[in-house]
Amino acid sequence: VPSRTSTLPSKGCRSHCESLEEWIMRVKQVAVPMDFGVKNLAISKHINVALLAANGRSVKANSQILAYNSRVFESKFKEDELCETIDLTEFTRHVVDTFVKTLYSGKLDFVSLPFMREMWQLAAKFNVKWLLKQLDSHLIYLIEERMSNKPTFANMKYIFEEANYFKTNKRRHEYMAMATHKLNSLYNTKTVKQKFFKRYICISNNDTVILSTNQINLLVDFAGENVDLLLKFVLKKVKRD
Fold it and tell me: How far apart are CA 187 and CA 5, in angstroms?
């Protein structure tokens, strides 16, 4: 892929010799994902927008490349040609930085579990369709990798929480089905299920946990023919509360 440094404006959202309409048409003609060169982020004259992350930290980028990847960015720069900052303070700097580098490189590198959901939220906020598809595949990879390991409570809890989040907030039901199928195929033993139900419902301590309908449905699906184990812990919790 040829370097695009020479074609990028040093200031503003477009070059000085083109109209706003010409710039918008040029943005629409670029096919993404595309490697724009992450190294360009280190070139000061290339940068013209600061993405403000949490704790007052910021990540700098070029508005043209952001617009190439997102119609939301494109509309924002169209409405405000002098836009120099974008408020993303609900996201950590690490995730914003990873997001920008991904848009520049045109590919998603490894995203660790603690940041996966936040990365998905940021990609959804700007409707970066190609990145959302890659994040879907990456989440499936993480679930497969984590669930292929020893059935620890942390591993199983992660699958439950992510499946519940995507079904509840994103109306994505396939993760719920995949999670229950994976759990049952790997950990279909009474002992493993019994230990998990006990900790997840917090029978072993005095914590108060209110289970959502989605969580209960997922637990029932995982329990399968051993639903009596789940009911036993649920009844204990109800009596205790």
Answer: 52
Q: How many angstroms separate the CA atoms of 13 and 6, rounded?
A: 14
Q: Are 203 and 170 in contact (CB under 8 A)?
A: no
Nearest to 103 by CA among 58, 43, 141, 59: 59
Residue keyed to tokens 């910021």? 58
Give pLDDT tens digits for 93-116.
Answer: 999 999 999 999 999 988 877 788
Dihedral, CA of residue 72, residue 73, residue 75 and residue 77, to nearest 10: 170
Query: Which residues, listed in sequence order, are joined to residue 182 by a DSSP beta bridge?
Result: none
pTM greater than 0.90:
no
**Angstrom distance (rounded) from CA 158 to CA 154:** 6
Per the structure block, which two tokens stand in for 80?
């405000």
Q: Report pLDDT digits (tens) over 191-202.
A: 778 888 888 876
